[in-house]
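job 3f2a | input accepted
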Amino acid sequence: MPIYEYFCNDCGKEFEEFIFSDQDEVRCPQCNGQRARKMISRCRTRMGGDIPPSGPSGDMGGSGGCSSCGGGSCGTCA
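job 3f2a | predicted structure (78 res):
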């Protein structure tokens, strides 16, 4: 059962819904509008090989280190 992201054209709210089949009617949880459109969601897939390292020593963010210090080897990082 996939989760889809929607945008309500009536009130502008973005929301997520579990969809069981193509026949399910999607209504906005804020305004109960029926004019919701499915958004393109970001996804991450892995085609094989090793999983890239993450965390302080292999941070994929570019600056190295954790989000609290950015130093790369502090003792408070888990």
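job 3f2a | DSSP finds no helices and three strands in the chain.
job 3f2a | closed
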